[in-house]
Amino acid sequence: MTESTPADFNNQFSVPGLRFEYGPGKLVRGVIDTPAARGEFYLNGAHVTAWQPAEHQPVLWMSAASNFAEGKPIRGGIPLCFPWFGPHADDPSLPAHGWARTSVWELSSAQPLKNQGISIVMTLTRSPYRLTYQVDFSSELHVRLLVETEDSAAAAGSSGILAIEEALHTYFTIGDIHQILIEGLESADFIDKVPEPHACNAVQAPIQFSGETDRVYQNTKSSCRLIDPVMHRMIIVDKSGSDTTVVWNPWIAKSARMADFGDHEWPGMVCIETANAGINKVQLKPGDRHEITATIRVQTIK
Ligand code: TA6
After folding, report:
1. Do 162 and 284 form a contact (C-beta atoms < 8 A)?
2. Measured in whole angstroms, how far is the alpha carbon of residue 69 from the centre of its chain?
3. What sections of the chain are H helices per DSSP?
4. Which atom of ligand 1 is nearest to the CA of 258?
């Protein structure tokens, strides 16, 4: 089956404010430009790479050094990590963060929203999972991953259980990593992965950054607030169906080790990831459904 071209998508999914084109690497991307917001997404990995609500600066961060090639992850935006988080537990040869973000997804619908935004739905079926990913681009950004498992005993093997990890691995544009605060995780214990994974008790204070930071906050359903005094804004991340929040900035040395991450980009980004990972793995039985959502909004602050 020949791959659909942007022209095919423009004919099949004709919505005011939405157009399809070839992006870098000749990857098909959707570009959204409505009174409510601008946005961008790729079918490669169902990857959202841009969202900018009206009256605000761009919210999602993208590396200028990102790869754009089928089967390769895009650096920035919202990588969709599934069905494992980080390196595969048993087979290090498998891609980090699972196969969802390096698969080409199907576009199943594109609809205008009442609030002048656009809702996109992409799907990916890979036995025993069927994934449905909805992205609502408007004055807020709402992303929803629905996981459905095949209703067959074989699907879950001898244990009868499918244990999955997942993350909406969101990269945010910030003015300066040294000056931001992240509130909302003060009461959550976490695994600090720097320099090696070790358990830490809740610190009862907002997160500030003074070096490489890679923390898996556990058993938390809390919203997060990213306070950015340089860009004069607060970014709020609400979530559902998620018990893990990951906070990451690679800082100097790790940035330099990543070919798809500019050496001097680290001060301008931070990840707040809506996830289920580690002790918060989701245990699914054949026929189960599970949904994780994140809703991102921006408020101006003085
Ligand atoms: O979410 C934090 C993290 O797990 C870091 O350890 C770092 O590896 C980051 O994800 C990026 O992973 P990637 O595979 O996209 O380079």
Report:
1. yes
2. 18
3. 6-12, 251-257
4. 16
**Active-site residue among 169, 183, 196, 232?**
169
* Residue to substitute in 67, 166, 169 for testing ligand 1 pocket (most ligand atoms within 8 angstroms of CB): 169
Whether residue 178 lies in the annotated active site = no
Ligand 1 mean position, distance from CA 211 (Å): 16
pTM score > 0.90 for this model?
Answer: yes
Could you give the C-alpha distances from 156 to 66, 132, 153, 166, 242, in angstroms and in order? 36, 20, 6, 17, 22
Residues with Cβ < 8 Å from 239, sequence gap 6 or more?
221, 223, 245, 274, 292, 293, 294, 295
Q: Is 232 a catalytic residue?
A: no
What is the tens place of the pLDDT at every residue in 220-257?
Answer: 999 999 999 999 999 999 999 999 999 999 999 999 99
